[in-house]
Amino acid sequence: MTAPTANREIVLFVCDSLMQGEELHARLAAARPLGPATTAAAYDLVDLGTMGALVPGGMVSVAGELYALEPQALAALDVFRGHPVLNQRIAIRLADGREAQAYAVAPEQSAGRRRVLSGDWRKRRGATSLGGGRGAGPVVRWAGRRS
User: Fold this and answer.
1) How far apart are CA 147 and CA 7, in angstroms?
2) pLDDT for 9-22, tens place per residue?
3) What is the DSSP string of the chain?
4) For residue 65, what are the β-bridge partners?
5) Could you tell me the CA-to-CA distances from 93 to 10, 67, 69, 117 in Å, in that order?
6) What is the pLDDT at residue 126?
7) How far apart are CA 68 and CA 33, in angstroms?
8) Contacts of 61 by beta carbon, 8 Å cutoff, 6+ apart
9) Burial 88-121, CB ≥16 within 10 A → b, else e
10) Around Cβ 42, how many Cβ atoms within 10 Å?
């Protein structure tokens, strides 16, 4: 069950630089904010540089925000995000049982990317590890800082 929206609006979960106060938030100027949300503990969050993306199959509850967008506004955002080549827009489950759309990458696309272990994009600096680095030891963490 998706969040209630007007007309044909689509509910989008964002968890990266599209969030309020982040550098790409202006891309959501045509969207209607619905408030904060958290995913079910079934994803990972990876840092792609200027943006992040969910990775299905993880074990993290990712913090983010919900927005309602008209189909044409979502289509423009899809182009910006590189959907369907760089990112896939998929249906995700929220912690409260609702569903929303979100941008994700396949696990193989996230290899070598930094995982945001906290699940909170705003806390990613200093709280990330090399992709696949759950439980990574000090040598792996050191090597990641050197690259």
Assistant:
1) 48
2) 999 999 999 999 99
3) -BPP-STT-EEEEE-STTSTTSTTGGGGTTSEEEEEEEB-S-EEEEE-SS-EEEEET--BPPEEEEEEE-HHHHHHHHHHHTTTTT-EEEEEEBTTS-EEEEEE--GGGGTTSEEETTS-GGG-TTSEE-TT-TT--HHHHHHHHH-
4) 14, 36
5) 15, 15, 18, 19
6) 53
7) 6
8) 38, 39, 40, 41, 43, 95, 119
9) bbeebebeeebebbbbbbeeebbeebbbbbbbbb
10) 16
Q: What is the dotted CATH code of the domain comprising 10-146?
A: 3.10.490.10
The residue type of 3 is A
As a whole number of angstroms, the distance between CA 123 and CA 120 comes to 5
* Structure tokens that stand for 97 in this block: 């049982």
Q: Name every residue whose Cβ is closer than 8 Å to that of residue 12 and which is 6 or more positions away in sequence.
A: 31, 66, 67, 68, 69, 74, 77, 100, 101, 102
Which of 2, 12, 3, 13 has the alpha carbon at shortest distance from 121? 13
Q: Which residues of the chain have pLDDT under 70?
A: 1-6, 126-147
Contacts of 27 (CB under 8 A, 6+ apart): 18, 77, 80
Q: Which residues pair with 11 in a beta bridge?
A: 68
